[in-house]
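Title: Prediction job returns without error message
Component: structure pipeline
Severity: low
Priority: P3
Assignee: unassigned

Description:
Job completed but the reporter wants confirmation the result is attached to the right record. Sequence as submitted:
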Amino acid sequence: MAGTSLITENAAEFRDALPDGGGLIGLDLGSKTIGTAFADAHWRFATAGKTLAKGKFSRDKAAIEELVSQRGLKGIVIGLPLNMDGSAGPRAQASRAFARNIAVLGLPVLLWDERWSTASAERDMIAQDFSRAKRAEKIDSHAAAIILQGAIDRLAGGIL
């Protein structure tokens, strides 16, 4: 897993970089945490993973690299927090910088529009009767699953 690889916002380019599919990790980058989610090798479903405490990039990278290695993952999907008008603000710029840094793992990276993912995750968790404390603890990983599911629906469905 050395070198850098493709970083794109284009689902077709990402899919072309993974002609044989493969498991994916989805990341929701919060200010204090990183939510993780995982997709099966056939890109049918995404499930929430653990929420990592965000720290120095070297530590974050090591934690993500360990998850990638343990699960034999082939690609990374990172939520791209665009503004409602589609423009990129400071948070989107930070996600792009994270993508450039994490690309050293050698896996293709897809930046996926995550507008409404956290709100959607919050609604789902309330509907499942999660306590406020549990929602706070797990919101980023649930948002990562929503981001990843949106990406794999596009990738697997061929609607690019």
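Comment from assignee: result matches the submitted record. The two ends are 28 Å apart (CA to CA).
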